[in-house]
Amino acid sequence: MTGSDSVLSIKGVGPEVAKKLRILGITTISELLLHYPRRYEDYSNVSPIQNIKPGQVTIKAVIKQIKGRYVRRGMHITEAVASDDTSSVRVIWFNQPYRENAMRPGQEYFISGELGLSHQRMSITNPAVELVSDFPVSTARIVPVYRETKGLKSAQIRKYIKACSRLINGQAETLPSWILASHALMSRSDAMFSMHFPESLPSLEMAKKRLGFEEVFELSLAALLNKYELLQEESVVIPFDVKIAQDFVKHLPFTLTDAQKQVIWQIYNDLAKSQPMNRLVEGDVGSGKTVVAAMSAVMAMQQGFQVAYMAPTALLARQHADTLKKLLTPLDFDSKVGELRGSMKTPEKKIVYDKLENGELGLIVGTHAVIQDKVRMKRLGLVIIDEQHRFGVEQRKRLQAKAGIMPHVLTMTATPIPRTLALTLYGELDISVINTKPAGRLLIKTELVSPNSKQQMYDKVDKELEAGRQMFVVCPLITDEDPSKRSVEAVHTELSRKYFKNRHVGLLHGKLSSAEKDQIMADFIEKKYDILVSTTVIEVGVDVPNATVMIIEDAERFGLAQLHQLRGRVGRSEHQGYCYLILSDSKPASRRLRALEQSHDGFKLAELDLELRGPGAIYGTMQHGELDLRVAKLTDVKLISQARSAAQQFIDNKENLIQYNHLYNKVQKLRAVTNVS
């Protein structure tokens, strides 16, 4: 048996099990051994039931009674009685209906969870459960819990990994010996063995450090190699023209913030160099990134260079084009702004193509279509990418072919990314942050709402609608596929037939075509709808200054960063904005939601999201590639700093990457994934 062998070579794995493993991305033994646990259950301190006290407890008991039932709004409760020789205790699971049939009467279980007061009785709530007969002795009662799929539980995965455990010792080292020594890291094979068969919590932490370090090191090395390769390219030089900058600022109807001024100066310094700029501008919702983009564009246009501005949707591109034209009108550059959208007729596109090719247009705004083969630009010098677009090696090559030379690239995102995460994901970019908002912008009033208080909330918002304002309502699902979650279809029906019969209520979700979504959004902007019920497709969207109310159903289903983005869809004018977060039940709100009610700092909220929910919450928002971080904790600033420093030293030492076979293959893959701008 070798690592490259199919999982079918493992005793007990047949075609059906192999099919389930494939769902988890596991087809070979090596992939199985790299399927690290999601978490661990510590059963090392088992107490008799008569001795347990409030807090985290672990008992060894038999289930005597178990029964499940549905309660209000589709919530399911499973209640059981667990007994040992000393006493009995009540056990409760919420929204885990499978527990009733999964638990076997008369069988002994290890049950680990929080003991506390629930409905006036002491109970263990939502505990983890392990059959004693399945308990792997080699784990010293620290049990790994793996990512599972239907019909394939952690106990089976542990069994298959144990059958292959001897192959772990044959794992080749992937890091240079000087890195292992300087950072006191255990060997890769020892770390892998400890991940699957932890003997103690300290040994497990050492294993996580070793493998997490490796992951961040690989990612950092890939990003740094991309950065140094880009610096070998030559770009156009766009010198700073103080007069055009002063004229632009003089005609603005507002004053630039200090953060905007600082970021603009960083961009101007980049543009004046012969190496291509590759800068990411992070700006919280409403911080004024479009003005920064306009000031960057006008400097390039003043020097005779063309600018391509890419937006994620045609509707957003259209709105950006209108905004940019207004900003550039005082400088007589508005006539040089063109649009390119898929919905345009062929003759209209042909006119734009010709104007770009002869240099008549200086700024083209559109979707990814602006870099298609039909688009030929006379003197492309700057590319600005707004939200969600990822720019890889192939796109750069295509731009280089259009420009004849590598253009400068500026990427903007409204997703606040904690610094540790940004440095890891975007190591090849220079990062700028706009962390203040324009003066006079009203803070959005945010309020947590119990399901029992909906009517009072609707009475409040109806006054806003009566004043001519508009409202977004966001739900986690499109249809009622999960009875415990609110869907856009159900909420749309409820609002239009019960609470707001006299209002026009629109419906928007991801299953609609792009044209349908654009049309509905355009109708909302034109005030054909008073209320728009939607999924999170509006998270990164167009400005609707007249929308002042945001209602989010089942708010705890969303990440903090995502909720903050949704909140930012309203309050984008001189009118007061309101955000109502409706809870799924009447229980006290979580720390996350209370933080959102109290804070409007997107970066602080993103830091808290990273701490409480992990990087997945932010990856999802950014729609980033498969970074494959299985172990690394991106809240571990010290580990990230050490791994990034080691990657830089690897390059400074002129190490030959090819001599490290595994590292070479992994870094090459990551270079393709992380090469974004």
Describe the overall structure.
- The structure is a single chain.
- Helix content is 38%, strand content 19%.
- It contains 23 helices and 20 strands.
- The strands form four sheets. It has a seven-stranded parallel beta sheet, with helices on both faces. Strands 15-20-19-16-18-17 form a six-stranded parallel beta sheet, with helices on both faces. The protein has a five-stranded mixed barrel with strand order 2-3-4-6-5.
- The longest helix is centred in the N-terminal third of the chain and has 31 residues, at 201-231.
- It is globular and about 85 Å long.
- Residues 619-626 have low confidence and may be disordered.
Give the percentage of residues in beta strands.
15-25%
Strand segment tally: 20
The N- to C-terminal Cα distance equals: 43 Å
Query: How much helicity do the residues have?
Result: 25-40%
Layout of SSEs?
Layout: H1 15-23, H2 29-33, E1 39-42, E2 55-70, E3 76-83, E4 88-94, H3 99-102, E5 108-118, E6 121-131, E7 142-145, H4 154-163, H5 177-182, H6 188-196, H7 201-231, H8 242-250, H9 258-271, E8 278-283, H10 289-302, E9 306-310, H11 314-328, E10 337-340, H12 346-357, E11 363-366, E12 380-386, H13 393-403, E13 408-413, H14 419-425, E14 430-434, E15 445-449, H15 454-466, E16 470-474, H16 488-499, E17 505-508, H17 514-525, E18 531-534, E19 547-552, H18 560-567, E20 578-582, H19 591-598, H20 602-613, H21 616-622, H22 637-652, H23 661-674
Parallel strand pairs: 4-6, 8-13, 8-14, 9-11, 9-12, 10-11, 12-13, 15-20, 16-18, 16-19, 17-18, 19-20
Antiparallel strand pairs: 1-7, 2-3, 2-5, 3-4, 5-6
Helix pairs in contact: 6-7, 7-22, 7-23, 9-10, 10-11, 18-20
